[in-house]
Amino acid sequence: MPHSDISPLPCRELFSDLPPFPDNIPTAPLLRISLEKLLQHDSEEEERCWKACCDLGFFYLDLHTSSPISLDDKNRTASGETLLQDADQLFEVMKGFYDLDIKEKIKYDFKDQGSYFGYKGYGEGFIDKQGTRDRNEFYNISKDDILGLSPPLPSPAVLNPHRALYKSYIHSSHAVCMLIASLISLRLPLTHESRAAGGLPALHNLRARSGDQIRFVKAPPQEPSLRGVALGEHTDFGSVTVLFNRLGGLQVRLPPSIAPAPARPSSSSSPPLAAASDVERRLCEDGWAYVRPLPRHCIVNLGDALVKFSNGLLRSNIHRVVAPPGGQGGVTRYSLVYFCRPEDDVLLKGVVEGEEGEGKEVVTAKEWILRRALGRRKVDGWAGSGGTEGVSMRGGGMRV
Ligand SMILES: O=C(O)CCC(=O)C(=O)O
Ligand SMILES: [Fe+2]
């Protein structure tokens, strides 16, 4: 099965308030997985999803559904539609926050208290070992805070009225992550003990304390540049990430086995495509490829914890955010993320049959995330804040 997708792309009109994603650059051939089919346990779709998790660790999830997503054992449900609506509303909420004066926003930077929740100002994160500063702002909202599992953190008045929206978004994003975790769990060669204990979903109880978070991201308009990127190359720290973005700029680094989708050929009725800029071409060297945002889809990717649990069978792929391509660089870029992470006390080690990586110190999910997230806030923290990048760029299976 080739790593490409033949189903027709949905219309692009839904992002019509934004400059179009250009057709003249190579893109990452992410599989398009249907949430509706996964909810119906369509075996072919489940197999495609499993393949995407092993080969690239990134895929599009088509959120057009009529089937309900079960949220809990009390018969509460959500749908792809409600997730999309929540995401739309959160894009507006985050704009309200980012419009605040910087003096107000930095009151919510909790780095010095050893927390990665709250605000990170523009340029306050480091994207490489040379200490280059990032070019974006973050605001992280803790799942435990919103669900009342931990004491509430101070938060700005513009964000406080929307706690019900955060809760709804957390519930449906977490449910999507658990659907993926169950699918993976059934296919992994789990040890008898981990299967008996409930497999991967049992390590991600929504009501247990964890580093799960909603993230708002803002990057101002950017000139295409090879020096400095909005968000440096990284793997995600946790288990499953649900990402909504509307402007290009996200790039994944494809493994040698997956070729980028070439620039789209111009049709006889349309004018010939202008060449990609020199900077854009160079940003596509070394396997990097742009991810085209698709309306009504989210992007799902796997993080380091699943690489650890699966002894490297699953992939947490390296990605970064560069200036949006073509005419998109002139517009402010917002994105919305949900990071689903293992419960704080879970040990990040193999739960599958086979040998464990030797000599590696085993840490808890909480320790792993704190080291990785706070390390990237220190000028000299890059080297000590790495994840499973070495495994991500493997050609075949590799020990973690
Ligand atoms: O903004 C994006 O498209 C990606 C953000 C991301 O990778 C992250 O926050 O970890
Ligand atoms: Fe990421």
TrEMBL record:
Keyword Iron: yes
Gene Ontology biological process terms from the UniProt entry: small molecule biosynthetic process
Keywords: Iron, Metal-binding, Oxidoreductase
Pfam family, one: DIOX_N
Molecular function, one GO term: oxidoreductase activity
Domain Fe2OG dioxygenase: 210-342
Membership in a protein family: Belongs to the iron/ascorbate-dependent oxidoreductase family.
Protein name, per record: Clavaminate synthase-like protein
Originating species: Cucurbitaria berberidis CBS 394.84
